[in-house]
Amino acid sequence: MTIDLVGAFTIGLLGAGHCMGMCGGIASLLTLPSAKAQATPPALLVSLNYNLGRLVSYSLIGALVGGAIASIVALSEFNHVLVVLRLIAALFMILLACYVGKWWNGLLMVEKLGKNVWRVVSPLGQKCLPLKTPAHAIPFGFIWGWLPCGLVYSILTWAAVSGSALGGALTMLFFGLGTLPAMLLVGSQANKLKQLQNSLIFRNIAALSILLFGLYTGYGSVIILSSN
């Protein structure tokens, strides 16, 4: 397991409070009975299926981006394309740290870039509702994985520099796995976790951890570029 996969998992774990705010409410609503439903769908099964769809979506996006960048690098005569892109990814980590720590919300500007795509994709998700069976939560989660999210976009920059479609898929998968503990919790336990992640001490520790990871990666990229 590479340090990037560990980093992606850790960032998913530390930034899960943001995921709960973006997707947690939707995931909870899926377990409520609709007017047409005969009974309340099993909450745990629906949640598992929803998150399975979400992880598949993340992995697919990572594979597409990682594979596309790897192909561009292979065709390029510039030997340090990945190093430059890795430096950009490090900058995104710094932006993410500022966002998690609530020091600066510049990352929200990046989220706006995905709104046009979301306008096209979101109606497909509406067609999955109300859920006829728990299995219908899988395609709904897959579509919801395309929700504009600065946290996801930041990790996607790491998938871009993974060097392959497989590497990109694994990077996004490990990030998604890091968000799972928070996303699978419901009710009071989720509220307690959200309170912890919103606390000043935890928030700053998480932000500093991400910041150090970004600075470490950025420093390594600068050293490589300056030595050539």
**What percent of the residues sit in helical stretches (DSSP H or I)?**
over 70%
Query: Which structural class best describes the helix and strand composition?
Result: mainly alpha
The major beta sheet can be summarized as:
none
End-to-end distance, in Å? 29 Å
Task: Give the total of domains.
Answer: 1
Envelope shape? globular
Would you report the number of β strands?
A: 0
The Rg value, from CA coordinates, equals 18 Å
Quote the beta fraction.
under 5%
Low-confidence stretches: none
The helix tally amounts to 11
- Element pattern in H and E: HHHHHHHHHHH
What's the rounded overall pLDDT mean?
83
Could you characterize what this model shows?
The protein has 228 residues and is mostly helical. The protein has one domain. The protein has helices at 3-14, 16-29, 43-75, 81-100, 107-111, 115-126, 137-144, 150-160, 165-184, 187-198, 200-226. Helix 3 packs across helix 7 (137-144), helix 3 (43-75) crosses helix 8 (150-160) and helix 3 (43-75) runs antiparallel to helix 9.
Summarize, please.
The protein is mainly α and 228 residues long.
